[in-house]
Each structure stands twice: as structure tokens, then as C-alpha cells.
């Protein structure tokens, strides 16, 4: 099962907005960059905008494609397309009741992310 996912690295003033995946979800209990699965024949960028509205209540006005990571979790293979979100309206919240936090990019290593996120966190830190 290959799942295509769009995720947003929501940035503001050197901080990034992260969310805690619920324990009932795949990779639950780990922090994530908000996002979700692309629907059938849905462009990833369209999925990104839809998911960030659904999960965080923001309207993305500026985003830049960052990197793609493919990862096999054993039970599931994901292709994650990460976008930097540098402009949005509204104030991000955990619209689905998920715990959320603004963290400095430099502090990202203090948070446990799914394995697929490791190269992304590394790249964000290296760019500081
Ligand atoms: N959103 C997101 N998903 C990630 C990240 N890293 C990572 O391995 N994943 C995996 C976990 C899931 O298998 C998949 C994303 O699925 P999801 O649960 O967010 O999908 P969704 O929002 O459409 O949720 P649902 O409708 O299935 O509940 O990608 C990440 O940083 N953000
Ligand atoms: Mg999601």
C-alpha cells in the first residue's frame, strides 16, 4: 500500500508549527508537520492547502516545495511531499483536538518524529 502525503512545514519568525499525532493514528504519539493523504488524482499542493485548513484552520497564501521522502514503515509505504509554508492567514490551531506547539527550528531534535522525518529535520537544522 503506497500512500502519497502532503505535509506543511509552517514557518514564522524562526519557529515551526508542529502537531502531535494521536495514539490511534499510524505513527501515533509522534510529532509531525501537519498534513495528510492526497485524494485520488488530487495534486499534492491542493491536498496541502486542504489539509492545513482541515487540521490547523489556516489558509495557505505562500508555499514552496521543499523535499520528497519515501519511506517503508513495513505496514505502509509513504511518499511524503514536504512544503515550506511561509505565508498564511488565520492563526494555526489543533482543529482536530491534537496537541500543537510552535518550536524553534533549533529545538526540533528534542521532539520525536516518525522515521521518514529524520532527513527533513536534519535539512532544516543544517540550513540554520
Ligand atoms: N502529516 C504527516 N504525516 C506524516 C509525517 N511523517 C510521516 O511519516 N507521516 C505519515 C504518517 C501517516 O502514515 C501518513 C499521513 O497520514 P495522515 O494520518 O496525516 O493522513 P490524513 O491526515 O489524511 O488522515 P486520515 O484522514 O487518514 O485520518 O504519513 C508528517 O510529518 N506529517
Ligand atoms: Mg493528517
Automatic annotation (TrEMBL):
It is an enzyme of class 3 (hydrolase). It catalyses: 8-oxo-GTP + H2O = 8-oxo-GMP + diphosphate + H(+); 8-oxo-dGTP + H2O = 8-oxo-dGMP + diphosphate + H(+). Its EC number is 3.6.1.55. The keyword Lipid biosynthesis does not apply. One of its GO terms (biological process) is DNA replication. One of its GO terms (molecular function) is 8-oxo-dGDP phosphatase activity. Residues 1-128 form the Nudix hydrolase domain. It holds the Pfam family NUDIX_4. NCBIfam families: mutt (TIGR00586). This is 8-oxo-dGTP diphosphatase. It comes from Marinomonas profundimaris.
Amino acid at each position: 500500500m503506497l500512500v502519497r502525503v502532503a505535509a506543511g512545514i509552517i514557518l514564522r519568525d524562526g519557529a515551526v508549527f508542529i502537531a502531535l499525532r494521536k495514539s490511534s493514528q499510524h505513527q501515533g504519539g509522534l510529532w509531525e508537520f501537519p498534513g495528510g493523504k492526497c485524494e485520488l488524482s488530487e495534486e499534492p499542493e491542493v491536498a496541502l492547502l486542504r489539509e492545513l485548513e482541515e487540521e490547523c484552520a489556516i489558509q495557505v497564501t505562500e508555499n514552496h516545495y521543499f523535499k520528497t521522502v519515501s519511506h517503508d514503515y513495513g505496514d505502509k509505504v509513504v511518499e511524503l511531499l514536504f512544503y515550506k509554508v511561509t505565508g498564511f492567514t488565520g492563526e494555526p490551531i489543533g482543529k482536530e483536538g491534537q496537541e500543537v506547539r510552535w518550536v524553534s527550528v533549533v529545538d526540533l531534535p528534542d521532539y520525536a518524529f516518525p522515521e521518514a522525518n529524520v532527513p527533513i529535520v536534519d535539512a532544516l537544522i543544517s540550513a540554520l
